[in-house]
């Protein structure tokens, strides 16, 4: 249904802008590329509006590993939380907007998470002579972490699918809402961007988000995982790691730590902590679809107990046990470590003995 909006000029005259159709799809796509804020990031996340980082237009998607591009996504963006955002644009006059566009988007998503390379994505971004450090106001030490998070989110299916049109028909609205209510890790939304134009060719654009409901928010803010659910997920990765995780859980409970179960949308996790204070959370263990990792909470460690010397000591001990090479920049972040090395009983004993003393010192710290 067409309509009008009215603008009051500086000389107090009213200007009527009538709803108009986009001349062609290419103009619509170019508008989104040049002015990505039109994708209504403030409506998607009112408390933390999305900042869109443009990666590519007509982004190729292969249908097999190492294969040539089979499909082409209209736009690929990444937001400030490293979530890949797929954008497919259709005008309301295009009959494919009803069903075919959904199949297209699911093809893109299913194959992209499997076959896209993070190196390709990063190269496409950097070829534009842009800097993530400048766009997100982060330091160079955090740059690689950002791209690592993009890769992790992509592989775990933590992505966003945006169906964009000047008018989204009810049939597509119903599908978008259904998918968004059902999919835990993937956000599926419509963005209806109406164009209004005056007789003197002044234009304005009004975006509206479709598909964000209380049900979809509840699905994506999943209630806490349980120990049973976590261990089942670990077993799917590697049965031997079930014993490793049980040993960690038993050990930290014996140290007097609480076990807090994660609320992740897809990957179950747990966090041992001496108290519920953020700074007393020691690390998190995540069961991803293909690996189990420990994320060390250096970023949240606070003085007086977790001073720089203590963090250096923890880093060196972890390097020794896990045979890795954490560096000083990792002390500012939350580095991830594969826990497979703890299958070795001596290494497990060394790990638990060290953290037993660490927790003992934490308990005796003045602020605890």
Which segments are poorly predicted (pLDDT under 50) over 5 or more consecutive residues?
Answer: none
Termini separation comes to 63 Å
Q: Give the overall pLDDT as a whole number.
A: 89
Total number of beta strands = 13
Protein name: DUF91 domain-containing protein
Nutshell version of this structure?
This is DUF91 domain-containing protein. The protein has helices spanning 25-34, 41-44, 100-115, 118-126, 132-136, 140-155, 170-182, 214-220, 227-237, 239-254, 308-322, 345-364; strands spanning 4-8, 14-20, 53-62, 69-78, 84-89, 160-165, 187-197, 203-210, 258-261, 269-273, 283-287, 292-296, 336-338. By secondary structure, it is an alpha+beta fold.
What characteristics describe this protein?
368 residues; alpha+beta; 2 domains; five-stranded antiparallel β-sheet; 12 helices; 39% helix; elongated; DUF91 domain-containing protein
Report on this model:
The protein folds into two domains: about 5-220, no CATH class; about 225-365. The chain is about 40% helix and about 25% strand. The protein has twelve helices and 13 strands. It has helices spanning about 25-35, 40-45, 100-115, 120-125, 130-135, 140-155, 170-180, 215-220, 225-235, 240-255, 310-320, 345-365, and strands at about 5-10, 15-20, 55-60, 70-80, 85-90, 160-165, 185-195, 205-210, 260, 270-275, 285, 290-295, 335-340. Strands 1, 2, 3, 4, 5, 6, 7 and 8 form an eight-stranded mixed beta sheet that branches. It has a five-stranded antiparallel beta sheet with strand order 9-10-11-12-13. Helix 9 (about 225-235) packs antiparallel against helix 10 and helix 10 runs parallel beside helix 12. The longest helix is centred in the C-terminal third of the chain and has 20 residues, at about 345-365. The model has no long low-confidence stretch (mean pLDDT about 90). This is DUF91 domain-containing protein.
């Amino acid at each position: 249904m067409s309509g009008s909006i009215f603008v009051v000029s500086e000389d107090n005259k009213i200007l009527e802008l009538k709803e108009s159709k986009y001349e062609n799809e290419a103009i619509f796509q170019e508008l989104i590329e040049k002015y990505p804020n039109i994708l209504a990031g403030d409506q998607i996340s009112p408390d933390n509006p999305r900042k869109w980082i443009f990666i590519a237009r007509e982004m190729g998607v292969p249908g097999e590993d190492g294969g040539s591009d089979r499909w082409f996504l209209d736009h690929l963006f990444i937001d400030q939380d490293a979530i890949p955002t797929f954008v497919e644009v259709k005008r309301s006059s295009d009959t494919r907007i009803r069903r075919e566009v959904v199949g297209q988007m699911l093809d893109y998503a299913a194959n992209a998470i499997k076959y896209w390379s993070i190196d390709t994505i990063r190269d496409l971004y950097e070829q534009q002579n842009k800097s993530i450090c400048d766009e997100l106001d982060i330091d160079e030490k955090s740059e690689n972490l950002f791209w690592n998070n993009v890769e992790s989110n992509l592989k775990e299916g933590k992505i966003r699918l945006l169906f964009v049109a000047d008018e989204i028909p009810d049939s597509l609205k119903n599908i978008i809402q259904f998918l968004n209510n059902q999919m835990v890790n993937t956000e599926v939304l419509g963005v209806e961007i109406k164009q209004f134009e005056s007789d003197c060719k002044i234009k304005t654009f009004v975006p509206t988000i479709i598909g964000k409901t209380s049900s979809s928010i509840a699905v994506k803010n999943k209630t806490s995982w349980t120990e049973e659910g976590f261990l089942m997920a670990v077993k799917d990765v590697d049965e031997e790691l079930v014993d490793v995780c049980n040993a960690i859980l038993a050990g930290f409970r014996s140290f007097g730590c609480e076990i807090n179960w994660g609320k992740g949308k897809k990957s179950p996790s747990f966090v041992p902590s001496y108290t519920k204070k953020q700074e007393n959370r020691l690390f998190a263990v995540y069961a991803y679809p293909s690996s189990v990792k420990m994320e060390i909470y250096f970023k949240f460690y606070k003085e007086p107990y977790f001073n720089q010397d203590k963090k250096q000591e923890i880093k060196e001990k972890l390097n020794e046990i896990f045979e890795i090479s954490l560096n000083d920049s990792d002390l500012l972040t939350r580095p991830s470590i594969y826990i497979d090395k703890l299958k070795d009983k001596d290494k497990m004993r060394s790990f638990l003995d060290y953290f037993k003393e660490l927790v003992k010192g934490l308990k005796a710290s003045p602020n605890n």
